[in-house]
Every structure is written in structure tokens, then in C-alpha cells.
Amino acid sequence: MGKIFIVKESDIKINEGLIDESEVEDQITNLEVAICRTFIEIYDLNDGFKGILSEEENRIFEFYKEILDDQTFFEEIKSLIKNERYSAEKAIYTCINKYIDEISKSNNEYIKQRIFDLNDIAKRLVRNISVSVADENGLKINEINSEQIMVLKELTPIIAASLAKKEVKGVVAEEGAGYFTHASIILRSTGIPAVNGIRMDEIEKFDGSPAIIDGSKGVVVANPSEAEIQDLKSGLSEKKQALKNGRNGAAACERKPVETADGYRIRLLANISSVKEFLVAKKLGVDGIGLVRTESLFINYKRIPDEKRQYLIYSKIAKDLDGKPVVIRTADIGGDKVPQALAINDQSLSRSARGIRRSLEHKTELVTQIRAIMRAGKFGKVFISFPMVDSIEQIMEVKRIIKDISDELAEKKGEPVNRIGIGTMVETAEAVKIIDEILNEVDFISIGTNDMLHQICEQSRKCSTLEMRSYLEPVFLQTLKHCLDKAAEKNKPACVCGEMATDPMAIVVLLGMGAKDLSMSPSYIENTCRFIRTIKLDEAKEAAQKALESQNLQEVKNMLSELTKNRM
């Protein structure tokens, strides 16, 4: 609850005319000053979130730093000032809009999220040429307080970070606050609810009015009645009590296997990006590590870590898990995860290889990583998985690499090397099409719901990724059910990863569709454990069937909302 505060961006005036030759050096100096000021803003915000955001979430800030530190990018803007006689402001917008045009052509939804970030960088640089620091981020920062619900046209990660530092009650945006955007991730990590897709012209008349924002339902109630306020307070009290009871029962989650109310065993595994996250997961007593995101090693180092460095990390995780499974995914670098600001000046983003495709193009790095993983295999139950697979040829090639490395290591040791299980991420539309062939070649699959959602929904007019809980779209659920059924037919384990595996509504459907393994961030483990124990398998199967047969997303959400009420 809070008062609505309409955020109107400060006017940014661009000099569209040409400058005189005598002004060129002054304009370049203005550009350099703006870059320095913007760097300071980003570093200050980033420092303020240390210990709050996860390692992966903190990388949202790295994109800004990399762009600002990209010498080629800087030289392009300078060239427009020198050769075309553009003002610094016009040169910035011209250069960045060129990259936005490239990104718009991409078929990768994660890359498209960078449009918000690049727009923000352009506005920030231009603002820092002429606007005082008091007008931080284009917000009237001194007028913002912790009792307000902020309403703005476009939310960016940096504006989200600034609002989080102000501890605002909630954020409403016309665009940029969708569930999978970087801005939304920052707000969720700091406990601030957000609602996307609310038109500014519909809410502006309520400026200064009291309001309720419900991020879980995606609604804003302006000028709520006393009855609506009391209902909200009552619901909050119940949730707080349930949370308190849940915390008292946390140890029980660690000691006992996770089962539904009628005894159906579910394995809860953790997705980790660092040793720090691994230690948290181990303390929670997870059933294993469902996904080690090794690209964090690649992104946080200036050079690719050598085999010894990688081996030490993988072997520590394997040893400390005491025989529980650990799935190590080879680096998913590419797309929005490539260092040097997405290699933005090297090639078209729409053609940028990602995942296993990029790894096979950089085979030396891949061989080094696979060798380190295989050597660590002697310390525990280690599996290897490959990201963004979209052809059987890719799987066959990595299997040949694994055999060659196995033969090489065996020759050195004079004894056979421990066999490691081979799996793949199923997260592309192409992988879904060849799921039968994939299952014939691997020991298990991990279903990456985030990437798969975007690819499947791009191909169906009945499906959208704009709404929170888009993964409950019937078209997407049918695709998931197909993958789970095929894995069951071949008697191969299938683990569901991503945001979907942490949402109680989605968990009901996943269990009903036959999912037995769920992998998620360690922070979701306890709540998921407690929720699963309130569900019976029969009711989950019935709910899943209804969801699969539903006409649209809203119908699914309404049905599951009723089922999960008072259990979350």
C-alpha cells in the first residue's frame, strides 16, 4: 500500500543541427565527462547491492560497465562528432540506435531485453552532458520516498536499482517491468512488487491517491475501499503467520525427503552460479545440484580459467555433496552473456552463437572444461550437460570429444576413467522437435523453461511472454508435457529448471504432468518444500489436465489461484 507517484522523465533536448569545427573538441570533452559521470552512477548503485543480489543478478550492472568501457563504441561516437559534425547528444543516439536496430532483428528474447538497457544508457549519457546530479536517473530523486508506489513509462535496471535503494512500496510501468526483465529481477530480489503493462494515460489521474499494488496478481487498485484494505491486511497477516510457521519447520525440510501430502517423492535440486551459492544449497539439504552455471567463471575472469582452476571448483562441489548428484553445464556463453558488452562491435547480435554452438566453435575452451569436469568425476556422482542444443550432430560431436578425453586420461592413469552421465538442456524449439533422437543419445535431460518459453511462444500466436506466469500458457504447457512424456517413455530422468519450477501455481501443474525433479535457486528451496507437502498427486493431475485443456492463460491462472489459495 502506498501513494501513487507519477514519474515524468526530464526533457532531454538534442541538438539536431550540425556543429562548427571549432566545437568538435568541446563536444568530445562533454562525451568523456558524461561517460565518467555515468560510470560513477553505475558503480555506486552496484556497490549498494553487494550481498543483496546474487552473483548472476549483479551481472546486470556489468553490461552497462562494459558498454561504457568499450573503446570501439567510444570511437564510433567520436567519429560521428568529428566527421559528421554531430553534437555529442545526437552522436550518442545515432550510434546506440544502430545497435538497437540490430537487436530488434534477433530471435532471442533475452537479447531483446537489452533494448531497454541501451535506451537507458543513451538517455543517461545525454543527461549527464548537461543535467545536474540532483536529477539522478531522470527522476525527481529528492521527491521520492518509501511510502510511494512509483508509476513510470519505461522501467530500466538502473532506475529499478535507484528505486530499490529508496525502498519504495511498489513500481508500476507501462513497459520494462515484465516478469523476466532485468529490472523486474532486481525489484523481486529486494522485495518490491512490480506490475507491468499499465497504461500511463489510465493511471495519471490517480497521482497522489492511495493505492494497493499486488505483484503476484499483477493488479493495482487505486483509491481502495475500506473493505479492500481490510481484506489485504487480513491476507498479509495470514501470510506472515504461515511464513513464521514455515521458518520454524525449516529443519524438517532438511531432515525428511520431500513428498506430496500422499507420499509422492519429489527431488528438489539447486541451481548455483558460485561456490557461495553451493554452500547455501548444501546447508539446506538439497537432493543434489541440478545445474552448475559455469559461465559465471568465464564472465568474472579476464581470461578463460585454466583446467586446474576449473577442476578445483568442480571437485570441491562433487566431494562436499557426499554422493548426491551434481550436474555441471558447460558454459552458456553467447547472446546476452558474452563479455565485452555482447561483442556488440564485432558481429550482428542476431547472428551471435550461443551455448553448445559457440562452445564447438571454440573447441579448445570446451575441451579444457570437459577435461576438468571428467577429472572431478572421481570425487562424486558427476554429470555433464550441454546448453542450447538444437541438433543431434552437436550431441554426437561432444560425445566424441568426451570419448577422446576419456581415452587420454585412462592412458595417463593406466586405468579406466569413471564414466560420467551425459545430458543436455532442452530449451530450444528445435530440441523439442527432435526430443526422441536426443533421448536416444543421452542419459538425462534438463528442461530450461525460461529460454524454451520465449522460443515456443514466438512461434505461436496463442502464446505471449509479456505477462507474469506466461509459462502457464496452455500452448507452452502442452510442449512441456510432450517432453516429460517422451522422457518417461524412454525411462530417462527429466529435471525442470527455471523460474517456473519455483512458482506454486506452476509446481502443481508440473507434478500433475509427471515431473519428479525440480531445480531452482537455493533461496526458493524451503518454501517449495513446504508447499509440495500441501499438495496431493491426484489433485495435481486433475489441475494439470484442466490447464492443458484451457483456452487461455487467464483461465489457467484463475483455476490455479483458487487451488493454491492459503497454501502459499
UniProtKB/TrEMBL annotation:
Residues covered by the PEP-utilising enzyme C-terminal domain: 250-535
Localization per record: Cytoplasm
The protein's required cofactors: Mg(2+)
Reactions catalysed, as given in the entry: L-histidyl-[protein] + phosphoenolpyruvate = N(pros)-phospho-L-histidyl-[protein] + pyruvate
Main subcellular location: cytoplasm
Top-rank EC class of the record's enzyme: transferase
Database matches in PANTHER family: PHOSPHOENOLPYRUVATE-PROTEIN PHOSPHOTRANSFERASE
NCBIfam families referenced in this protein's UniProt entry, alphabetically: PTS_I_fam
Protein name per the record: Phosphoenolpyruvate-protein phosphotransferase
Organism name: Acetivibrio thermocellus (strain ATCC 27405 / DSM 1237 / JCM 9322 / NBRC 103400 / NCIMB 10682 / NRRL B-4536 / VPI 7372) (Clostridium thermocellum)
